[in-house]
Specification:
- Belongs to the ABC transporter superfamily.
- About 40% of the residues lie in helices and about 25% in strands.
- It is of the alpha/beta class.
- Helix 3 crosses helix 4.
- The protein binds adenosine-5'-diphosphate and magnesium ion.
- Adenosine-5'-diphosphate binds next to strand 2 and helix 1.
Amino acid sequence: MITVDGLTKRYGQLTAVDEVSFTAEPGRVMGFLGPNGAGKSTSMRMMVGLSEPTSGTAHILGRRFGELPNPGREVGVLLDASAQHGGRTGREILSLAAGTMGLPKAWGDAALERVSLTPEEARRRVGNYSLGMRQRLGIAVALIGDPDVLILDEPANGLDPAGIRWMRDLLRGFANDGGTVLLSSHLLHEIEVIADDILVIGNGRIVARGTKEQLLTEGGTLARSADPAALAAALRAAGHASKQASSGALHTEADAGTVGQVALATGVALTELRAADSTGLEEMFLALTDDSQRDGLRDETDTKTEGTAA
Ligand SMILES: Nc1ncnc2c1ncn2[C@@H]1O[C@H](COP(=O)(O)OP(=O)(O)O)[C@@H](O)[C@H]1O
Ligand SMILES: [Mg+2]
């Protein structure tokens, strides 16, 4: 269990993390999704005691990180997989981690096995690892102390689609055994594949939250037609707002049956009609990404994203 309450970090004028609150429950994988610069790493660094919050608190298993008797046995952390010492071999890094936590060296081998790094790979220097191999090794280090909680910053970075599915299965198994997982990503697709619950952060603030199903089914309907303007007008007349999605299709909260009826009554032929699924989340996420790329517009974008607050 991770409990975060009003967590805030200011760097001078910049509020990198702004009143972030959430609970990550045992048995679930929570995805922390936000564009680059949104405040994911800063939040996670505060959770694991590497950065002092300006205000607010983070508790892991009911205690602040610094109060955990043997943190590595309770929470596994992967912050920056590229930060590992390139001159050491994978096996050496795991032995060192085992030593620091007072664990038998054999636990290092067990961790290697859990992340599917072969003994031959473990004998290579990390400097020669691909990013994906570094991520696996980083996860092995996080798992070595058999913790109850995992906090992983962008662990799927550099993994191919098969690697992302592998990580989903690994984290699913960890959660099924009663563990709590918080992982961040700047890619919606990764979070969609891996997470049960989603927390969306933009400009330091939580802008949406819910189970994956909730966030994906709130997506409404997508309708493509030869005459989107006429369809939009007919939907409006029937009391349903719509907007043109970036793909050119109309996106509306009305269900597919309603859109079909309206199109029939108006004589507009539909060329595609389907549940928008993740499109709603994707559009919101794209808007956040746009916003965070425009420096200096922070105040305006903050009020803009508030409209979607969960
Ligand atoms: N040590 C620091 N000093 C000043 N600004 C920082 C520092 N660390 C992060 N920031 C800023 O805080 C914001 C959030 O960064 P970060 O938490 O790394 O975002 P994310 O991990 O979501 O990409 C960014 O604008 C970043 O430039
Ligand atoms: Mg980051």
